[in-house]
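Technical note accompanying the year-one report. For the benefit of new consortium partners, we illustrate the data format agreed upon in the data management plan: each record pairs a sequence with a structure-token string. No post-processing was applied to the example shown here.
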Amino acid sequence: MLAILIDGGNSYFIRYPAGNWLVDSPKFVTPLLRRLEAFGGVAHIFLTHRDDVADAERYAEHFAARRIIHRDELWSQPGAEVVLDGAGPWELAPGFVAIATPGHTRGHCVLHYQDRFLFTGDHLDWDRDEQRLAASEDYCWYSWPGQAESMARLASHRFEWVLPGHGQRVKLPAQEMHEQIERLARSMQEG
């Protein structure tokens, strides 16, 4: 897996035998384009929400890739090839599950990969000062109570990595990650 940091946001590249994945979209720049081509291109572009789409349309056109986004975020990518509708979850391919996490935005989704990785967009990140998982009410544009409920639902999924759209990624043992998610959901719900 390759993490891409451009203009303060994180995008991620997953090499996958049935077609490579890009999670959220970086800017369309030639050096990055050439590197993605060298890795075999991109077949799928998973977009967590509306403000991390950057140049997804250009990547989709260049690689003939399928963009995946929730219907409530579709206005940001009106030509998306795969539109998630409802509350999910959705199995997109073996090992790839999209989970609706409304809160930051109405149609925000995370991508759960191989029960190890959680690509969280702007739903969840790592607070390196406090050494804990965190979410920001200041950057919640849709519903903080909804984001708290979404956070609680993530506790039913196993993962070791949190890979956010902004900020630091973190790897913890699955049980510790589970405890951190439960603690964060409780604190968000208590307010």
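Partners are asked to follow this layout when depositing records. The mean pLDDT is 94.
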